[in-house]
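Researcher: I'm preparing a figure for a lab meeting and need a structural model of a single chain. I don't have an experimental structure, so a prediction will have to do for now. The sequence is pasted below. Please return the structure as tokens so I can convert it later.
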Amino acid sequence: MSEQLTVMERKVYHYLIDFLAENTYQPSVRDIGRRFRIKSTKTVSDLLQSLAAKGYIERDASRSRGVRLLGVQSVGGTQPIPVFAEDSALDPQWHGGEPDDWLTLDRRFVPSDDVVFLRTNQDRFATRGVLEGDYVMVSPSARAGDGDLIAARVGQRIVTRTLTHRGAAIVLEGDGGTEEDLTVGPTEDFQVLGVVVGVWRPTHDRPVAVEA
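Model: Understood. Here is the structure written out token by token.
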């Protein structure tokens, strides 16, 4: 899973994306230093290494422009979001950081650096607008409260449910149909993966109704 960035890491990361879109090649370490008035090339190198360690780039430190942006397709003002299959047996590190795919979005629609997409494999909460094949954006850093739609891991099962506290018990409410309520006990292997903060629907994958 990509980790949250510091303010300076985010600025450098976005600069890398925008520079690539404008020039079709990456900036050098010295280019980055000039852009942000960083005199030390080691400081720039450390920033790039931190971006690599957090899963945003791959880096060849032996080359001046040895940076590859993971998931980016040379479009400025955007950010790539990793995509995971909903029914994957995800551990707390989301596959150790290896997504199944990437989606690139305008940054204005990305609430935090650590968001991921889960692609649903069946209708989930149709009453709240989540259907089979939707891309559900999950924010691990958002604080989950009662009534929030969340992604959670219960054992080796990934579920999308409404979080509710009933006294000391945690209840993951289903949709009243095929998705049953789950009561999580104190000894249960359970983790909130994040709060659902958006739903994207790939309309080209769906049949189009044609009037007779």
